[in-house]
Amino acid sequence: ITQILFDCDNTLVLSEELAFEACAELSNEMLAKQNVSDRYTGPGLMTTFVGQNFRGVVTGLQQKHGFKLSDAEVDDYVSRELGKVIETLKAKAEPCVGVMPVLENLYKSKKYGLAVVSSSALSRVQASVEKVGQDKFFPPDHIFSAATSLPVPTTKPDPAIYLHACKVIGKEPGECVAVEDSRSGSLSAVRASIPTIGYVGSYGGVIKQKEMAEVLKEAGVKVIMDDWNQFDDCLAKIEAM
Predict the structure, then answer these.
(1) Which listed residue, 102, 174, 204, 213, has the most CB atoms within 10 A of its CB?
(2) What is the bridge-based pairing of β-strands 3-6 and 196-199?
(3) Phi and psi of 232, rounded to 5°?
């Protein structure tokens, strides 16, 4: 293993809750315009769509509630959501608990290349890592976005963004380890044949963490990590496989 690929939202940066608040506001506006009576809270939307970008959320809402937006309408919502989320993240984002010393040690050791592989728009990911002081650990051209970095925008669980990252960095999937916190993210990495650590530390409470550990195992992750202080052991387990 020579390369570590980190998901961003709720793996490196506590950003999902902040982002889904903005998502919910726009989603409810969209549903109201389509005369759909259902409404979402940030946490409710997050439970359904965690790990997907807003384009994926909009697609899911159209399928679930039986309406169809034009491509231009979708693009408009995606653009507005991005602006709202970046503004919120620049003000309030914080690093995931315990991740900073791990990144510091990995960066100093120079044993592994480090990259970020996210579903979120590149500007959002950059705003997140910059706000919490993680940008120094990642080469700017090794921050990848399923929404921005690909010729055709997509979202996890599509493996395209992981395959693209491997190609750009110049690594085979088997030389990499991914760290993911969601089912869609884990599926994306696993489908790209990248051994994956499932991180559940950002989920509130032991019951929810155990629940998510099972979900991630079913998605094919090799090892579960519930605290960043377990990272070295988890990495060693994967390297020994």
Answers:
(1) 102
(2) unpaired
(3) -60, -45
